[in-house]
């Protein structure tokens, strides 16, 4: 007679099989609220996706870009550390909303900007995430081609096409299959990439020349601020618009401090290490710094022994895919949140097509990556910073969980298109764009229109490239929301709970007062 009692081994095997099966199923949750029965995990589970998304060797390349602002190693280190930690801390605070509301970031944003007013933020978020996933896929494609060329296998169009197809397929699959596959994939990427990155550092550490690094002259306060803002937009402000997408599956009783802490720690840990190492590496050799600025991944292979090129390709491509997968997942959620009547997997597939087309443009288009990249980050970063200020203030003022039904009901407590927060968002963007410039992209020449008005020397003055507009947009929106919206938030939370509703993603997400 067979003993029906499961052994520890059989129980563990069953759990592993169930988890694998879940990861290989297409997630059908979209912009709906996650039901209590489907909420799972602990705050420390957030470490894996955030670490994997930010452990890319691209972090080393940021060291060269920061030094391009004309500042010393000490200034660059301070700007990098402060910019990374502060901006990812903002992500941690926004992640609190996911735990409280169990819905995607852009749905929770409706409490601050109105149910249909938040579509503006959703569109901005979609542009930012699609842009990032395109950049990361392009870099992964070029990294494969560079390594193949160094190994003598050829780095021509055929290699690039094969790399594009494989990398694109992996990213799009992650976006379509969704949360469970992403969480498993990111755990694997974290372990593999961390080990191989340590190997890379060990092999090239002798390239560091501390005398050359210490001899780099200090730059101006304006250059330091410009580097600080660049780090904020390149890291935390590039993720803040999706920070609640991964905490929304956690149970409501989960520690808020744990959610914010593990999000910040997981996201910031790898960049802090990689940036400092990148600063040391780029500061040791001007030729290498210039090469990295132009070819952020390929230049890093020039100082490697041939036998480590394949492991380097694995670490480079894995890290870039890790970031792109999170982006395409959140871009799909953002696209559905704009009101487009499609399901989340379909939205992710649409974004995948756009990502591939954008990658083709970058890989085979004009050779001006850094200019396009910086212009994109700063231009989209300004309104995202304004939105972040509004969202952070709204999260700080709330003492109760979100009302689930009214997040989808445009006549509910959160309003449809409330004038005050929309005006704050618009004003923050106008102020911000007026205080930033980008000399690498002629199509952004209209920016900086306030620099002369406020006495900062105009578009050619010392403050032209400090990119103060990002900080101004963030601070203005945060303070203005605290000052002008506190009464509205108290009124919203004093109202009785609305009738519960079940919202199918992509199908009539905005309900009338009766929930019909």
From TrEMBL:
Main location group: membrane
Protein family per UniProt: Belongs to the purine-cytosine permease (2.A.39) family.
Protein's UniProt keywords contain Transmembrane: yes
Pfam families given in the database record: Transp_cyt_pur (PF02133)
Signal sequence extent: none
UniProt KW keywords: Membrane, Transmembrane, Transmembrane helix, Transport
Membrane-spanning segments: 47-67, 73-96, 126-149, 161-181, 188-205, 225-247, 259-283, 303-326, 346-364, 370-393, 414-436, 463-484
Record organism: Actinotalea fermentans
GO molecular function terms listed in the Swiss-Prot or TrEMBL record: transmembrane transporter activity
InterPro entries for this protein: Pur-cyt_permease, Pur-cyt_permease_Fcy2/21/22
GO CC, alphabetical: plasma membrane
Localization annotation: Membrane
Membrane association type: Multi-pass membrane protein
Name this polypeptide is given: Allantoin permease
């Amino acid at each position: 007679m067979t003993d029906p009692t499961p052994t520890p081994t059989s129980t563990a095997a069953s759990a592993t099989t169930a988890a694998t099966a879940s990861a290989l199923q297409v997630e059908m949750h979209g912009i709906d609220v996650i039901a209590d029965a489907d909420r799972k995990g602990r705050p420390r589970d957030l470490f894996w996706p955030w670490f994997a998304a930010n452990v890319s060797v691209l972090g080393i390349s940021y060291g060269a870009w920061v030094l391009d602002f004309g500042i010393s190693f000490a200034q660059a280190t301070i700007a990098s550390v402060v910019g990374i930690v502060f901006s990812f801390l903002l992500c941690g605070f926004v992640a609190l909303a996911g735990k409280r509301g169990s819905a995607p970031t852009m749905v929770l944003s409706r409490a601050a900007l109105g149910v249909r007013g938040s579509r503006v933020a959703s569109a901005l978020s979609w542009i930012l995430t699609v842009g990032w996933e395109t950049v990361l896929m392009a870099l992964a494609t070029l990294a494969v081609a560079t390594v193949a060329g160094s190994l003598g296998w050829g780095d021509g169009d055929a290699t690039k096409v094969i790399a594009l197809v494989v990398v694109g397929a992996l990213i799009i699959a992650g976006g379509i299959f969704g949360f469970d596959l992403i969480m498993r994939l990111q755990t694997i990427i974290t372990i593999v990439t961390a080990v191989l990155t340590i190997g890379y550092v060990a092999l090239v550490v002798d390239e560091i020349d501390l005398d050359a690094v210490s001899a780099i002259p200090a730059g101006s306060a304006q250059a330091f601020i410009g580097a600080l803002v660049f780090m904020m937009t390149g890291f935390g402000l590039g993720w803040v618009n999706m920070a609640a997408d991964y905490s929304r599956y956690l149970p409501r009783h989960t520690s808020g401090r744990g959610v914010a802490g593990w999000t910040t720690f997981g996201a910031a840990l790898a960049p802090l290490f990689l940036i400092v190492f990148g600063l040391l590496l780029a500061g040791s050799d001007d030729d290498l710094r210039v090469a990295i600025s132009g070819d952020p991944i390929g230049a890093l292979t020039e100082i490697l022994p041939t036998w480590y090129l394949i492991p380097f390709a694995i670490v480079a491509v894995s890290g870039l895919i890790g970031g792109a997968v999170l982006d395409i997942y959140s871009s799909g959620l953002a696209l559905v949140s704009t009101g487009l009547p499609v399901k989340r997997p379909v939205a992710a597939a649409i974004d995948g097509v756009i990502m591939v087309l954008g990658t083709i443009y970058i890989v085979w288009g004009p050779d001006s990556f850094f200019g396009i990249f910086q212009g994109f980050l700063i231009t989209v970063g300004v309104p995202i910073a304004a939105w972040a200020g509004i969202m952070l203030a709204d999260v700080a003022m709330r003492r109760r969980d979100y009302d689930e039904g009214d997040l989808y009901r445009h006549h509910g407590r959160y309003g449809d298109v409330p004038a005050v927060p929309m005006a704050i968002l618009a004003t923050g963007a106008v102020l911000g764009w007026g205080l930033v410039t980008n000399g690498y992209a002629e199509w952004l020449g209209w920016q900086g229109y306030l620099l002369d008005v406020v006495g900062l020397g105009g578009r050619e003055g010392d403050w032209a490239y400090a990119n103060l507009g990002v900080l101004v947009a963030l601070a203005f929106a945060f303070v203005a929301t605290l000052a002008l919206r506190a009464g509205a938030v108290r009124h919203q939370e004093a109202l009785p709970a609305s009738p519960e509703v079940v919202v199918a993603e992509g199908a009539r997400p905005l309900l009338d007062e009766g929930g019909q």
